Amino acid sequence: MSIQARCQCGKAFQAKAELAGKRVKCPSCGGVFTVPNASPELAPADDPLGLDGIDLSSPAMGASGGQYLPSHQVAPQNGSTNRTALLLLLGIGGAAVLLLIAVVVGVMLFFVSSDDTVADSSTSSPGDISVAPASTSPGTSLPQSPATPASGIPSSQSSGATESDVGWKVQADGPASPPAWPEQIDLSIPVPAQGDRVIYPATPSPFVALGLKITGGDNVQLWNLLTGEKAGQMQEAVKARSEYSLSPDGSQLAVKSDDSKHYSKLDIWSFQSGKLVREIECDHPQKHLQAFQFVAPGRLFTYTYGSIGQGTTYLLRVFDTMEGKRLAEIELDTNYTKDRFAVSPGGRYVAALAHNNELSVFDVIDGKLVGQVEVKQFLGDRTGAFRGMSYAPDGKQLGIVYSSTNSNLLLLDMEKGTPADQVEIAGKPPTASAYRGSAVEWIGTKGWCLFGGTVIERNTQRVVWNLELPIVDRLTARRTLPDGWIAQGGPHARKTLRFVPIPWPQIEAGLAAINGSSPAYLKPGGSVSLDFEIGQLRFGTKEDTATRLTEMYETRFRVDEIAIADDQPVVLKVGYSESEGETMYERKGIMGPKTGRTVQATNAQVAMTLATRDGNQTFWKHEIAYDPRSVTVLGKEVNEASVRDSIFRQLLYKLSETPIPYFVPQDAGASQLPGATKLDGT
Q: Got the DSSP string for 478-504?
C-alpha cells in the first residue's frame, strides 16, 4: 500500500505506507514535509435530512468513464460504555430533528496516478531517489484536479506544517471602500413570504439578499441597505441545497446546487440578468462542497473533501466566477466544518480553525499558507466549545468565541498572531448555537456584538444589552452597526427588515451609576442569595439537583462580580420540577442504525425570580419549559435515569443562556443591566 504525498513546492509523489506521519525530504526541491496518514475508506452514505456539512461521504459512484465539465456557462432559456447513543423524539411519520452534539469526521480517498516514491528524511537524501511528479492533467474520468485551472495557477500544501515552518506572514487586510453607515437608517424592507434566510456578504457591503429558504426561493431579491431600495430581482426560481453566498458588489449569488449526483457543484446566479449564468464543479462530483464564500466581486473560495481512489483530499480552492476558472488551490491536512472559516474584509485571506484549535491563515491570491498558530495556548483551562469567529472591519483582529457556562472572546492580532485582548463574558449568548450571521461584530469604538444580539461594552467588558427575538427569527442573520441592528421582524408573511436602535444613553447612564454612588439593590461587588424550591423529580435527589444548580449560578455570577451568600436582601428564587416527556428511540451514533429500544424523556420546568427577600419587590423573572427533542448519552448504559441526567446537563447550559441582571438600581427611572430590546411579532 502507498500513500499520496505532496511537498509545498507542488510536486506530488507516492510514499511507502511505513512513512505515514514521518518527515521526509522532497526529491524535487530538497524541502522537508510530512507524509499524511493513510485513511480507511468509508462506505458512502447520503444525507436524507439535508443536514449540510455533516455528510460522512458521498453515495457510491457508478461505472467510471466519460468526461465531465468542471465549469460551464449556462445558456439563456425561456420560461455499551464505549458507545454513543443518540436518542430522538418519536414523531409523526418517524420524522425527527437531530441535535448534533458530535464532531463528524469525513474520511475519503485520494486519487493516485503514478508509482513515484519518497523516503524518510532521516534515512535518505534527495539524491537517493529517482522520481517523477504525479499527473495532474484534467480531463480524465477521475482527475486529481478536476476543475479547469487557469494559467499559472498557484498551488501549495499545508499538510504537516508546523508554526516554525510557516511563521506568520499575515498583514492587516481592510476593505478598499467600506460602506459609510449613518447613525440611523430608516428601513422598512418587505421580506418575501416563506423566505427565512437573510444573506449578507462575507466582506463589508451595503447589499442583502432576501427571499431564500433552505431549498431556494421563487422571489429572490437584492436590496441596498444604504438607500433602502431594491437593486435586483431573480427572474427564475432559485433551487438550492441550503447554502448561499452573496458577492460584496451584489452582482452575483452563489448557491450550493441541488443536483443529487454532483455534490461539489455551485450555481452562480446574476442579479443583473436575473438568471443562472454558470455552474462550477468545484471538485470531483462525488466529493463534498463543505464551505464557500465570495472573497471579492467575481471571486470566491471553496472547501471540498472526499475520497476517490486511494486517499482523502481536503482542498481549498479559489475560482473566478465570471469565467469559471480555478485561480488557486491549497491542499489541507484535516477536515473543517463550514463555521470554521472567516474571510478578511479586504478579501486576501481566509482563516480556518481546525478542531484541535490550530488556526491557519491562507493567502487566496497567492494560493499559499501564510500563518499558523495554536490558539489553545492562549485559552487556559476553561476553553469551552467553539462557537464562531469573524474578522474586524479593518482586518486587524480576528474574534474567536468559545463558551460553556460562561463565554470567552479571544481577539487575535492578525499582524502578530498573538492575542490583542481576551474578554470573559458571563453566560452564553442566547443565539450562539446555529446562528447564521457573523459570530463577532465590532460596533465602532463602543464594543462588540456577539451572534447578532449580545452587546458587550468595550471599557467594562460587560454584557450591557440584548436583542430578544421570537424563536422563529433568532437564527436569521442580522447586521450590527455602531448604533443599532438591521433585523427581521413582524408577523408571519408580513415581516420587514428594519433598523432597531441600541439605547446607548440608557447603557451609559447605567454604567455611570455602577461606578458612582447611586444606591442600588444589586450591583457588581454585591451579593445575592439562592433560594431553591425543588418539586417533583423523576430521578436523582433534591440535594444533588440543588448542588448542581448552585454550581452553575456561582460560575455565572462570578464573571459579573456577584457573590453567592446566605441571608442577603436580594434573592434569586429558583423553582424546579420534572415530568415525564415524550418517547424517544435509540440510535448507535449520529448516523447509526436504530436499535429498536425506546425510552421516556424528562421534561423540566424552571421559574426564576430576582426579588427582595420579603417578596415586596420583584425586579426580574423568567420561565423555561424544557422539552428536549433529542439527547446524546455518552459512556453510560441507556435508561431513563441516564437520559434524565443528560437532559439535566443540557438544561444547565440552557440556563446559562438566560441574561440575569447584575445591576438593579433603586432609581425607578434608571435601566437594569443588562437590558433588553424585545422585537416581537408585530
A: -EEETTEEEEEESSTT--EEEEEE--H
Predicted pLDDT of residue 111: 23
- Low-confidence residues in the chain, pLDDT < 50: 1, 8-10, 38-69, 79-83, 90-146, 159-160
What cell numbers appear for 123 in the block?
A: 534515512
Rounded Cα distance between 303 and 288, Å, is: 8
Instruction: Tell me the C-alpha distance between 536 and 197, whole Å.
Output: 41
pLDDT score for 579: 97
Distances (CA, A) of 663 to 206, 610, 654: 37, 11, 22
State how far the Cα of 534 lies from the Cα of 577, in Å rounded to an integer.
6
Residue with cell 501564510: 370
Which residue type is seen at 372? Q
Total-model pTM: 0.80
From the number of C-beta atoms within 10 Å of its C-beta (0-12, 13-18, 19+), residue 63 rates as exposed
| pLDDT of res. 104 | 31
Alpha helices by DSSP H, listed for 103-231, are: 163-166
Contacts 24+ apart (CB under 8 A), 378-382: 378/410, 378/412, 378/418, 378/419, 378/422, 379/408, 379/410, 382/406, 382/408
Closest CA to 325 of 153, 575, 119: 153
Which residues have a Cβ under 8 Å from the Cβ of 576 and sit 6 or more positions away?
532, 533, 534, 535, 545, 549, 604, 605, 606
Q: How far apart are CA 455 and CA 466, in angstroms?
A: 6
Q: How many CB atoms lie within 10 A of CB 329?
A: 21
Q: Which residues of 339-375 are buried (b: 16+ CB within 10 A; e: fewer)?
A: bbbbbbbbbbbbbbbbeebbbbbbbbbebbbbbbbeb
Helix 640-656 to helix 542-559 angle (10° resolution) is 20
How does DSSP classify residue 535?
Answer: -
